[in-house]
């Protein structure tokens, strides 16, 4: 995809996620996500942080967190989830579909991956039957199936071949673990999935306890 296509897909992904959240009952915001320790509201607070924080504010929060990026992101997500109403978080996502944010060094491919993965963190955990369009998944899988990404997320894929059963895509070698491409994207990110979403002898390695 060129930049124009990527930005169009990012905007569409954000609008679709905002539509899902718009139908979510109040109690759903406190349901657990696939991000360990985060509820749905923390995930949305994290996604929308880029729209709500200026560059200097991010630097300030990073300094307050001792320079640890992940520590800063977790602290801010938890604080904002507690202080910003669900309606405000929802509006921030809905109203910033075309925001030009890109993760440092990740480009618009990284921005799309960020939104798709965190969207799945919510919809899969909530049991919402939403399918990410193939053209977005191809970009996401290309980015995640790299040595750099696997090191970052800490996914243990030794001796495993991931093979999608809904499109022509596979990664790795060894015992085959099958599933929908979007579920395998979550495996690449080190997520634990609800039981029954993956097949193969090694599938239990990636299932939630």
DSSP strand (E) fraction? 5-15%
Rg for CA atoms: 17 Å
- Order of strands in the sheet with the most strands? 2-1-3-4
Residue stretches low in confidence (pLDDT < 50, at least 5 long) are none
Beta strands, count: 4
Report the mean per-residue pLDDT as an integer: 96
What's the domain count?
2
Q: Would you tell me the structural class of the helices and strands? A: alpha+beta
Intertermini distance: 38 Å
Molecular shape: globular
Helix content: 40-55%
What count of helical segments does DSSP give? 9
What's the main sheet like?
4 strands, mixed
GO molecular function, one term: isomerase activity
Keywords: Isomerase
Pfam family, one: MDMPI_N
Domain Mycothiol-dependent maleylpyruvate isomerase metal-binding: 11-97
């Amino acid at each position: 995809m060129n930049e124009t296509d990527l930005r169009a897909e990012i905007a569409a992904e954000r609008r679709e996620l905002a539509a899902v959240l718009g139908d979510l009952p109040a109690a759903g915001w406190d349901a657990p996500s696939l991000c360990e320790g985060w509820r749905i509201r923390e995930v949305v607070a994290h996604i929308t942080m880029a729209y709500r924080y200026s560059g200097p504010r991010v630097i300030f929060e990073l300094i307050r967190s001792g320079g640890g990026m992940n520590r800063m992101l977790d602290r801010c997500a938890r604080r904002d989830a507690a202080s910003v109403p669900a309606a405000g978080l929802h509006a921030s996502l809905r109203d910033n579909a075309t925001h030009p944010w890109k993760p440092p060094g990740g480009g618009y491919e990284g921005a799309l991956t960020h939104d798709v993965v965190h969207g799945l963190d919510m919809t899969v955990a909530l049991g919402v039957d939403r399918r990410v369009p193939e053209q977005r998944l191809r970009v996401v899988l290309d980015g995640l199936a790299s040595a750099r990404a696997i090191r970052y997320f800490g996914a243990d894929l030794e001796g495993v071949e991931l093979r999608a059963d809904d499109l022509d895509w596979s990664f790795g070698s060894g015992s085959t673990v099958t599933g929908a491409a979007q579920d395998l994207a979550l495996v690449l990110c080190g997520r634990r999935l609800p039981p029954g979403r993956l097949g193969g002898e090694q599938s239990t390695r990636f299932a939630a306890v």
